[in-house]
From TrEMBL:
Keywords: Iron, Metal-binding. One of its GO terms (molecular function) is procollagen-proline 4-dioxygenase activity. InterPro entries: P4HA-like. This is 16878_t:CDS:1. The lineage of its organism: Eukaryota, Fungi, Fungi incertae sedis, Mucoromycota, Glomeromycotina. Gene3D superfamilies: q2cbj1_9rhob like domain. The keyword Metal-binding applies. Signal peptide: none annotated. One of its GO terms (cellular component) is endoplasmic reticulum.
Length: 182
């Protein structure tokens, strides 16, 4: 378990909506997308990077359904470190939870926190993840399902590219540019 984020958050956080209207996708009208600057300090981000590098990265796989993953470098070429850390997930949740709706979707699923399976992604020059839609994770007993992707950028130094893009079917994009701690 990690105490990296155990220091109370001192910076005032604000959720800034990502404007998806240029994509003109009817299904996106009720999509919740926003950024939050300074979720982590630069020092906390550095500590998380060091933690991930100490434990090590491996080739990122692609989820092909049914709980199966496969190496598909034509679709996804990057490195990934996976850490199951209930405390770190809880500490992150305590910082962002006030911005997340208490219930999710018209079925009113209660939002309870972040999945403790944290995935650290690293992209070296020329690496990528082709357009895709993040899928849900459901616990084996069916008790909980994820509906939301939370991304935290740990660095922005010397980056060329690296944006997260929301896409429509005609190729239009809305890009979110990485900032450390966002």
């Amino acid at each position: 378990m990690s105490d990296i984020l155990s220091t109370p958050q001192t910076t005032q956080l604000e959720a800034i909506p990502v404007d998806l209207t240029p994509l003109d996708i009817p299904d996106y009208k009720n999509i919740c997308a926003f950024t939050i600057d300074n979720v982590c300090t630069p020092e906390e981000c550095d500590a998380l990077i060091k933690l991930s590098e100490t434990d090590g990265y491996e080739a990122a796989l692609v989820n092909i359904g049914g709980g199966q993953q496969q190496l598909m470098t034509d679709v996804r070429k990057s490195s990934r470190y996976i850490r199951d850390d209930v405390k770190l997930a809880s500490d992150l949740w305590s910082r962002i939870s006030k911005f997340v709706p208490a219930t999710w979707s018209k079925e009113s699923f209660p939002v309870i926190g972040l999945n403790e399976r944290l995935r650290f992604l690293r992209y070296d020059p020329g690496e990528r993840f082709k357009p895709h839609q993040d899928g849900p994770y459901q616990r084996p007993d069916g008790s909980e399902t994820t509906f939301v992707t939370v991304q935290l950028y740990l660095n922005d130094e010397g980056l060329e590219g690296g944006e997260t893009s929301f896409l429509n079917f005609t190729g239009n994009k809305v890009k979110v540019t990485p900032k450390t701690g966002m």
